Amino acid sequence: GNMERIDLPPVGPTDLPLSLLEMGCSGRFELITHPLPHHQPLPPQSTLPHGLPPTSLNLEAEVEKQFLRDPAWLPIHDTDAAFQKDVRVDSLLNCTPSSLHSGLSVIRDPTTGMLLDFTEVDTGLSAKNSLSLQRQPGPPSESLRGSNTNYPFLPGGMEELTLDQIKKKSDLEEDIDFENACSALIWLCSPLLQWPFELDVFQKQAVLRLEAHDSVFVAAHTSAGKTVVAEYAIALSQKHMTRTIYTSPIKALSNQKFRDFKNTFGDVGLLTGDVQLSPEASCLIMTTEILRSMLYNGSEVIRDLEWVIFDEVHYINDAERGVVWEEVLIMLPEHVSIILLSATVPNALEFSEWIGRIKKRHIYVISTMKRPVPLEHYLYTGNSTKTQKEMFLLLDATGNFLTKGYYNAVDAKKERTSKHAQSFGTKNTSQNTSASQDRPVWLSLLHFLSERQQTPVVAFTFSRTRCDENARSLASMDLTTSVEKAEIHSFFQKSLSRLRGGDRQLPQILLMRDLLKRGIAVHHSGILPILKEVIEMLFSRGLVKVLFATETFAMGVNMPARTVVFDSIRKHDGTGFRNLLPGEYIQMAGRAGRRGLDATGTVIILCKTGVHDMGDLHVMMLGKPTVLQSQFRLTYTMILNLLRVEALRVTDMMRRSFSESHRDTQAHEKRIRQLKEKVSSLPPLDTEGQLSDLVPYYHTVTELRITTEALQRATLESVNGLKALSHLNALGVILQVSSDSVNRTFTALIICEKGNEEGEGNGPNAGALPHLYNTALFIPEGPCSHTVQKLKLQDISAITVKTLKVIPDRIIDNYNKRQQPRFRHDPPGQAISTATQELLRLAEANPGGVATLDPVNDLQLKSVDVVEGSMRLRLLQDSLRDFNCIHSPTFSEQVCVCERMGVQEELDKLLFLVSDQSLTLLPEYHQRIKVLQALKYVDSSNAVQLKGRVACQISSHELLLTELLFENALSPLAPEESAALLSCLVFTQNTQVEPHITNTLQEGIDRVLSVAQRIGELQRECGIAQSAEDFVGQFKFGLTEVVYCWARGMPFAEIAQLTDVQEGTVVRCIQRLDEVLKEVRQAARIVGDSVLGSKMEKASLAIRRDIVFTASLYTH
Fold first, then answer.
1. Which element (helix H / strand E) includes 1045?
2. Boundaries of each Helicase ATP-binding domain copy (predicted)?
3. What residue ranges do the domains of the chain occupy?
């Protein structure tokens, strides 16, 4: 029955327009706040004016509503998978209001049902079920790194764009000549930052783009001042109260940037694998891997993010880590603008176009080839006090290659080589010299340079041991004044004051101290990190005069010098020795010349044995730098991270990778539309009655045609195949075969009808029905004539068994003569008429076709494809006779089959290219899914299981580590043993020293190897290319003893004695091991294995001590 209405007095002016509405019978209330029209009673207080609804719903209706009409569970974007719904245009006109994020719920007295209170309850979106930025923030403890159960935020550009949106050029876009034009740029506002120097054109352009909040790609040489762009973005984000993330490829670089930006901005944080400083700052500096995990784990930082700055983007070429950059670029949400800083690369435009396409936004490419300090490149041939001035200019500051300088160097070198060596020629002098042989060269060169005040010098040497030897061989050299010595000494002592006493006495430190006092230093991956930083700081102050460094010094550290010397121009790249690539040379040579200090930078190439080849030098100095190439590959972590979120598919990630950027989907889509229209406009196929098998007939004939062509090619390209031939079922005889093996032509005499000598189509059904297969020979219907034509491979359909004796030269001469107007009406010569008669006689004798040579038996072509092809051909030819459609009277009119089928084929091909099926990595993706299913990381419907959740936590070698966890392989080991065992995941070098280890540890190693073997074999079975040996081989146990002893508290000095691995490498390895232990700890937490968790904690504490974990000097 009706609820009783209570009449209330009308609302007065003093009453607030509020009323409560009880929602259904669940005890939830909503507040109604809109004012009511005057003099109207209040609305009912419940949404149920007629009491409770009936409870027994019709089941059918319920099922239909839930499974057939409810769009929520149908994937909207995935049109391949969902069936077509009927289109209702008007549904687009009204949109539902977005739901509130909280509602009111009622608290009632449980006994009487009295209203006691209202509470606000949260509804809806959370980090566990939504990609939206509207979702509520997670717990503060997870705000920085996110959690591996969080969804990421929706990556920008995941929804498809229309062609018109892409075509629309904004009014700002113009093609600018960067080098010359551009005095017209005026500052629109007073810039946020003031620099002590006038900005270059490219910097001004970049800053203007940033003001407009656009994304930019800045390609310029190392010292050109790209940092200005980054600094401006940081300043902008401080002004806007947003955040900026600055990512760099190398940890050392992150530390340095932290110091630089800290001095400029103050509010800067640092996140690397082992350090976390002020993570709430507005500018965060981190390595790319950390940003990737923040994106996958839905970190709250992403909400406030305005800029992401990628420094040294050309690192995307790195085979091992390049894929991380691509993942990050694809996963960044829409509201984040991107700044890419890169060395000069040839394909900056193509790369930016890719980013623009996947992020659906304009990327402004700003590049400059200008060097603020131009470089001069010299060859140096001196090796004694007498010859120390022998330096020859090879490439001047304006970029001219001076061959004269080259020949002068060759002459200078020649004068000194003894007569004996000259008689052998200079070629066989080996390029490899020993350090003692180099010593005079270095001594004379450095003497010469310090006299001319050309220090500081960076000497690039492509081997660590060679760096050390060269520095040691300069024992007699002293390049510093006593004042400088004092400064070096005090800085050195102050920097190392944080080390424990024993660590200060390490041989490497003592050796380096002596070298540094004399102004000499060494910088490579084998040097202890803290020493490297001391050296970098002293170098940038100009106190290190000569620095022997490997290539890594040029990659990250921004430390320009006055002069750069190349010890050699060949380096070992892991597989073998090769010349430096132009990009590598430019990157290293670019360290010469300090802005504001030097007018030009000097680059010197040593000629120790002989002068390098001029061509090599020219390519290296003036060649194109390396293009950016995609190193995208699938990793299990990536697959699992995307599988745990329904809305993101791995194929979306693959389709957006740079390696697939050649797929011009828009152009394909356009062509597909055209073809679809064309198909619908063609007349329908008549496949009634006798013509019912027309389509399969067409397919058979097409296949036949393709097979024949392939066989033909094989036959006619073979030696045995050049005999006698028949043309368009008209017999002909070969007269001459051209010698050009690529486009080989055959001159042949062919019979034809009188009056049809010129026409190409000399057969009954040449033009009309190319799709009908016919073996009947052509017999002229009137008097027989002939023609001599040049044929291509495709024109020859078979070689007959018959041969004719003819005189080719006479036939050709005679025919050519009769082509001239004067002799047009002469009778054909004797040779021709005989040949023509013979051909006609043959044709009339075998109207059904002459027997042809079989490529396999007669011509002895035994390759697999030829044999298979000819068997297939026979099958197809036999099957043609069984078709009904050939007997239909209207058969010959069915030309439209051809056209329609052709269009349909092209359409199918394009649809394939646009679909996910054509992705290069798709087969590998399926193989990897198979592996994951076999190991129970995902179930048969690809839902991520517990093991998969654990593997998501782990950044490298995820399968092996997860398997070890679930097999409890670490449980019998002590904390220090488990740390030692896990060192195989981070150590990559080979060692000569056999480690001495405990039995339990040896068992652990065998266990790891057997698990690795099992995974490797499983991968092989599922079709992944890597062999099981290779998979097992990537785990190296050379440092197990070192780590074991370190975790048990042995001092570093003694540890260094246990192995031939250099100190710096050991330290780096133990630091990375700590990150692995952290990951295992989190994984143990997910599984609920508290024992393992605390064991990892203990192991971590045991290795985090002394020199291995001294904080970086840059972060203090």
1. helix 1040-1047
2. 207-363
3. 201-368, 375-419+434-622, 693-757+775-906, 953-1108
